[in-house]
Amino acid sequence: xxxxxxxxxxxxxxxxxxxxxxxxxxxxxxxxxxxxxxxxxxxxxxxxxxxxxxxxxxxxxxxxxxxxxxxxxxxxxxxxxxxxxxxxxxxxxxxxxxxxxxxxxxxxxxxxxxxxxxxxxxxxxxxxxxxxxxxxxxxxxxxxxxxxxxxxxxxxxxxxxxxxxxxxxxxxxxxxxxxxxxxxxxxxxxxxxxxxxxxxxxxxxxxxxxxxxxxxxxxxxxxxxxxxxxxxxxxxxx
Length: 238
Fold this sequence. Notes:
Elements lengths: L3 E5 L3 E6 L16 H8 L10 E3 L2 E3 L13 E7 L2 H12 L4 E9 L6 E5 L2 E3 L7 E3 L4 E5 L2 E12 L2 E10 L6 H8 L25 E9 L5 E4 L5 H4 L5
Parallel strand pairs: 5-13
Antiparallel strand pairs: 1-2, 2-5, 3-4, 6-12, 6-13, 7-11, 8-9, 8-10, 11-12, 13-14
C-alpha cells in the first residue's frame, strides 16, 4: 500500500488517503486499511488513541483522531503519541480545526451559498446510514455544514453542482446526510444515492477532503492541502 505523506513532525502525521481504503477495520472485511499501513510503518503508534468495539471484538485505531469514509479521499491527520492525540482531539472538540471538502452533488443547487443546520441521528431503515430531519432515531447530534457552489454543470444532460463544503461539526456521514437532506445527494454515493448517476470520470464517491488547518504542539498554525484528484480538477475546465 502506497500512502503519500503530506506533513510530519515528531508528534503529528498527515497523509493523503486514497479513495477505496478504509481508515480502520470494520470487523467484517479483511481488506487492508490505513491502520495496517500505520502499524507497519509506525509500530510505536500501536497504543496511541482509543479502540472501538464491534460485536464484542476490540478494533485498534492507532493514532486516529478523526476519520474519512472509505470512499472519501484526501487529507487525514494522525497522532504519533498520546500527548499529540489528546492535543488534536481537543482541537476537534473545540472546533479549532478547519476542514474544507470538495463535493459533486446531484442537481443544480439553488443557493450559491448556504448553511445547513440540522441535527443528525440514525436512519430507522438502514443501520449504516445517518439521517437529518424527520424520522431520525436515537440521539440527535448537532450538525452544521456550510457550502459554496463553485460550478453548476451538465453531463449527458444530467444536472450536477460542484461544491466547496465546510463542515463546522464532525458527525459521521455529515456531508452525505446533509446533502441528502436538501435533496442534492453526493454523486456516486451508493449508500445515500443508490439510483443516482455518476458524472464522467468518476468511479468513486464524489467527495474529497481538500484541506485541513490545525495547530501543532509548538503553537504553529499548519494548513495542509493535497493535490486535487484528476476527476475533480477536470470539472472546472468543462
